[in-house]
Write a structure and sequence with these properties.
The complex is a heterotrimer of chains A (91), B (238) and C (744). By secondary structure, chain A is an alpha+beta fold. Chain A contains two helices and three strands, in the order E-H-E-H-E. Chain A has one domain: Mth169, Chain: A. Helices cover 31% and strands 33% of the residues of chain A. A three-stranded antiparallel beta sheet of chain A has the order 2-1-3, with helices on one face. In chain B, helix 5 crosses helix 6. In chain C, helix 8 links the parallel strand 4 and strand 5. In chain C, helix 19 packs parallel to helix 22. Chain C is globular, with a radius of gyration of 26 Å. Classes of the chains: A alpha+beta (91), B alpha/beta (238), C alpha+beta (744).
């Protein structure tokens, strides 16, 4: 099966987020006075072959641990893992 | 002539632009982003830098500055606006120029000499150059890859709105001469009225032989001459 | 009068380890205080008594350095040193290490290193005009080392490019000894009209203490003590929250501070660095001979639930303390507001020399400042001077490769090859002042508003210092001076960063001792004072220790920057000569490392008097307009220097050295050719000049008793040493440009 996994990588709560601060202040200047805080992360979509959803999730977790996030400052969350098609024919 | 130089938080070419303008014998005044006042400038320069850190998208936050309202009004009346590097990015974000500037194809910041071929002399910024002239002007950016859809690119070419192309020192547009992977080697463009220029390279860094090139001075001189010639226009839009 | 009750019981060993204090130090503190410090006080003492803040090991040794001179406006002890560079301008500069944070998170570690050194400069009122970085990693072929190298380079660029200060130079070495402890030293140079020079010394009891800039989070708590212990395998867990730099905020902070520099309303400015609010407030008060009271309840926080201890020791970046008179607080705050910077009055200056921390009402810390800042027992040598296994034998070495291949291998070496891949990612031109760009000997930046220029570089060969700490350190000073002299500048002062292992190890302590003595030797001989510096110790892990690494940051002045001298050849037909002796040995050379691994025995010789004469000769020759180019002979020796001059200019050369083809002993000996071409003998320059200048140059050389050896001429498209080596310029350039590229 081909799966698509949506991964969100974001800074750990304790880590300073300059980008979030600028976006927060920018929103406030545009009149969104109710904005308390903004933290910016990134969305990574991984398309992969796997036997089942569990296998796909495990593989993506390992990708996160090894490459997608910087464990020193970032956490990650796997939002969804969904099957999209039959596995591609082996080439 | 009086050049107004925009200062956003994070702008850093403001002082360099002022230096180059003064060296050309013209006057430089600083324009603070929180003010709607262009201080009687004949030409507004939007200099390089990392306005608001460029943290969200380069130029994305600066376009909402009060100063930009005045700039839009000024250019609608025919006033000259000249965006350099981050200023180009701001002009695109503000939709005064089409297209967008994305991450360099190398995925790295590039600070090095580049060679620009003048593609049109039909705007104030290159009026004193000749089409085909090659100017040595350095680049310094991480997000300078010009992209736009094919229709827009065709329109830019057709209307002589591509002002500069990256070329080899000998003047050949060969793609590899582009420091950032810009589509069609585009380094600078103008708006339909030809009074708003955006360019990635830094002419203000190329105004003295001591610093490696004086070719950038030709652009400042072009603007000053055009303004003197069209003095009535500038005066009427103040 | 202390309102603090004594801590209940002496802390456990674990509690002391947490704050990196020894039992003896703790007992000394209790004795000086006349009571047990409480939990908050213990943390604050730990931070301020750390090696990083107190220099408890190095301070007594550093007294050996000459720090005075006619041009010195500010020696060590302030945020940075300052020298008079003429026309009413002061040049403010310093180098600082960020080794430990960079080893953990290379991008942010290097970025915040740049941020920190920038603050040191603009705190003194000077506008930063240049950055330089001295970097060392393990072998580049190893993926982890490439990761560190690329991360550090990206972090330096990320911060410097964003804030708009040009990165104009530095150095880069790869060596096994840095495999587990990389070196990231950042230097910043600033310029200010002398009368606007700002000091960080609090005065006037009752004056307000403003905290400006970023909100305070739990960043890098215990960073100072962390940098003062060696890495072990638990470092991963014990590491403090990594600091993430915000160059945009710092840019605003810099502009606001520069707007206020020289303003009579500003009593003092001090940036927050090691040990955060604690370190900065204590230094500020101690320098001014006053006390300070800080109320942590008034400190704006980024996170909830922070304890007073965390607030005081947080190393959140981009913060500044500013002392102002109470009646000026509003006006000064308005300047910061204009730059969208948050500021709060967090404390006040008090007359009694105490360091008091309150949390709202109650005092949680009350320590005498002299105990806090100066009370730490200074460390002495752990043992007697060790006997060094001295090898006096100078072995001759032949190159294992033919001469052509030898040259190409050296040019391709990551230690010698082109740095373009690095410096093209740094904005090195912003400021419209960079006259000589990175890649040559020293960069030259003109002083805005003056015809003068500043030449600057960093230098230090750790292979030499590990073989002979004293001579190696002296060589580092001489070579840095030579780099500056080659541009036509007069060296005026230097800053130094001393990167060593654990000083509690006797050998390391004595290496440090001797290296400082070597710096002093060369400074005295060349008449160049030390005006600032930094010591980074504990650069070792359980498995390895760095080679003693002395990095010298040198600044020189060119009276008329338009008359600077280039390193690249200038024109076809010019003659080439070596000023200084011919080399003959490959001792400790890059060729020896490449060909035979790390088995060097002897560092190059150094004759300080000859060094001084050679530098004077080249300086005067440039001033008299006799030279078209001058290039320092360094790693890779004459062969590599000649190739560099050729590659940079696109002009070849044809040289002839009699000793190469007719050795003195009458027999052709290939090892001698390698020694002459690639030996790293000191006190030498490769110069080029118009033929007509030769007679005058010979006169000048004779006056300075400097050997001047004509080699041949500039021209063609090959690098030729007759009868020995003949390489096309293209092949040389390809090898040179390949040096830092990832291997396929």
């Amino acid at each position: 099966m081909i799966f698509i996994a949506d991964v969100v990588v974001h800074l750990k709560p304790v880590v300073n987020d300059p980008q979030g601060l600028v976006v927060r202040d920018g929103l406030r200047r545009l009149g969104f006075a109710d904005v308390h805080g903004v933290r910016v992360g990134k969305h990574i979509q991984v398309e992969l072959d796997a036997g089942d959803e569990q296998g796909a999730r495990a593989a993506v977790e390992s990708m996160c641990d090894r490459l997608l996030r910087n464990p020193v400052i970032e956490d990650y969350r796997i939002d969804a893992v969904r099957a999209v098609a039959e596995a591609a024919a082996a080439s | 002539m009086r050049f107004g130089i925009a200062v956003f938080p994070g702008t850093w070419s403001d002082r360099d632009c002022a230096h180059a303008v003064e060296l050309s014998g013209n006057e430089a005044v600083m324009l603070w982003h929180k003010d709607r006042d262009l201080r009687g400038a004949d030409c507004v320069m939007l200099p390089g830098g990392f306005s608001y850190g460029d943290y969200l998208r380069a130029g994305a936050v600066a376009r909402f500055a009060p100063l930009m309202e005045a700039v839009v009004e000024f250019t609608e009346g025919g006033g000259l606006a000249w965006g350099i590097c981050n200023g180009f990015q701001v002009l695109c974000e503000a939709h005064l120029l089409p297209g967008a500037l994305t991450r360099n194809a190398s995925l790295q910041f590039r600070c090095e000499p580049s060679w620009l071929r003048v593609e049109t002399d039909s705007c104030a910024f290159t009026a004193s150059c000749r089409v085909g002239d090659v100017l040595q002007i350095p680049v310094s950016h991480g997000e300078g890859r010009y992209v736009a859809d094919e229709a827009t690119l065709d329109e830019l070419e057709r209307d002589e709105r591509v002002v500069f192309r990256y070329v080899t020192p000998a003047g050949l547009a060969v793609g590899a001469a582009t420091p950032n992977g810009s589509m069609r080697d585009i380094a600078g463009i103008v708006n339909p009225a030809h009074n708003v220029l955006g360019m990635m390279p830094h002419p203000e860094r190329a105004c003295e032989p001591l610093l490696g090139s004086a070719d950038g001075m030709r652009l400042i001189t072009s603007v000053a001459r055009s303004l003197r010639r069209d003095g009535a226009l500038a005066a009427s839009t103040r | 009068m202390s309102v603090i009750s004594a801590g209940a019981a002496p802390p456990t060993d674990a509690a002391l380890a947490e704050v990196a204090l020894s039992r003896a130090e703790y007992e000394a503190a209790a004795r000086l205080l006349g009571r047990e410090p409480n939990h908050v006080e213990l943390g604050i003492l730990g931070a301020l008594w750390s090696e990083h803040c107190s220099y408890k090991t190095s301070k007594p040794l550093l007294r050996a350095l000459p720090t005075t001179g006619a041009a010195v406006l500010q020696g060590p002890g302030e945020n940075a040193g300052a020298v008079d560079v003429g026309d009413g301008f002061a040049c403010v500069f310093k180098i600082e290490s960020h080794n430990h944070p960079s080893a953990i998170e290379p991008y942010q570690g290097a970025a915040t290193g740049v941020g920190g050194i920038l603050r040191d400069i603009f705190t003194m009122g000077a506008r930063p005009v240049a950055l330089l970085d001295s970097l060392r990693f393990g072998p580049l072929e190893e993926p982890r080392q490439r990761h560190l190298f690329e991360g550090v380079v990206a972090g330096i660029g990320g911060y410097g490019n964003c804030i708009g200060v040009p990165t104009v130079g530095g150095e880069l070495y790869f060596d096994e000894s840095y495999r587990e402890n990389c070196i990231v030293n950042a230097m910043c140079v600033g310029v200010v009209p002398s009368e606007r020079l700002t000091r960080a010394s609090a005065r006037g009891p009752g004056n307000a203490v403003l905290l400006v800039g970023a909100d305070t989070g739990r960043d890098g708590i215990h960073g100072a003590s962390f940098a003062s212990v060696q890495f072990d395998d638990s470092s991963e867990e014990r590491r403090p929250a990594v600091q993430v730099g915000n160059p945009f905020l710092e840019k605003c902070l810099m502009e606001a501070c520069l707007e206020l520099a020289g303003d009579p309303r500003i009593v003092a400015m001090q940036d927050l660095g090691a040990a955060g609010l604690c370190g900065s407030a204590a230094e500020l008060a101690h320098r001014g001979g006053v006390g300070v009271e800080i109320d942590v309840a008034r400190v704006a926080r980024r996170e909830q639930g922070m304890t007073p201890y965390e607030v005081m020791l947080s190393e959140s970046q981009e913060r500044m303390l500013v002392v102002v008179r109470p009646q000026d607080v509003d006006a000064v705050q308005q300047v910061f507001e204009r730059w969208d910077l948050h500021s709060d009055v967090v404390g006040r200056v008090v007359a009694e020399q105490r360091f008091v921390v309150r949390d709202g009402g109650a005092a949680v810390c009350d320590l005498p400042l002299d105990v806090l800042v100066d009370g730490v027992p200074q460390r002495t040598a752990p043992g007697p001077r060790p006997e060094r296994a001295m090898t006096l034998e100078h072995r001759m070495w032949a190159s294992p490769w033919p001469m052509e291949e030898t040259l190409l291998r050296l040019l391709r070496s990551p230690n010698l090859g082109s740095r373009r891949a690095v410096f093209r990612t740094y904005d090195h031109q912003v400021g419209d002042a960079t006259v000589v760009r990175p890649g040559g000997d020293a960069a030259v930046v003109r002083i805005p508003g003056s015809v003068r220029g500043l030449a600057m570089c960093t230098d230090g060969n750790a292979r030499y210092t590990s073989l002979a700490p004293r001579r190696g350190a002296a060589i580092a000073v001489c070579e840095a001076a030579r780099n500056v002299v080659a541009t036509g500048a007069r060296p005026v002062a230097l800053t130094n960063c001393l990167n060593f292992g654990n000083p509690e190890v006797n050998d390391v302590y004595w290496d440090l001792h001797d290296a400082i003595a070597g710096i002093a030797d060369a400074c005295t001989a060349l008449g160049v004072p030390v005006v600032s510096g930094n010591v980074s110790l504990y650069n070792e892990s359980e498995r390895s220790r760095i080679a003693p690494t002395v990095v010298i940051g040198m600044v020189g002045v060119i009276d008329d920057v338009a008359r600077h001298c280039a390193a690249a050849f200038a024109s076809e037909g010019d003659e080439i000569a070596v000023a200084g002796p011919l080399a003959g040995r490959l001792d400790a050379s890059e060729l020896q490392r490449l060909g035979f691994g790390v088995n060097a025995k002897v560092a190059p010789d150094l004759d300080l008097d000859l060094e001084r004469r050679v530098q004077s000769f080249v300086g005067e020759a440039i001033a008299a307009g006799l030279l078209h180019s001058a290039h320092d002979l360094a790693e890779g020796g004459l062969g590599v220097a000649a190739a560099e001059c050729a590659i940079w200019s696109g002009l070849g050369l044809r040289a002839e050295i009699a000793e190469l083809t007719h050795p003195p002993d009458g027999e052709r000996a290939p090892f001698e050719a390698a020694g002459i071409l690639f030996g790293e003998g000191q006190s030498r320059f490769l110069i080029s000049y118009a033929r007509e200048a030769l007679v005058q140059l010979q006169d000048l050389a004779a006056r300075h008793s400097v050997p001047l050896r004509a080699l041949g001429t500039v021209g063609g498209s090959r690098i030729t040493f007759s009868g020995v080596l003949d390489v096309s310029l293209e092949a040389a350039r390809d090898a040179y440009e390949e040096a830092l590229q990832p291997s396929a």
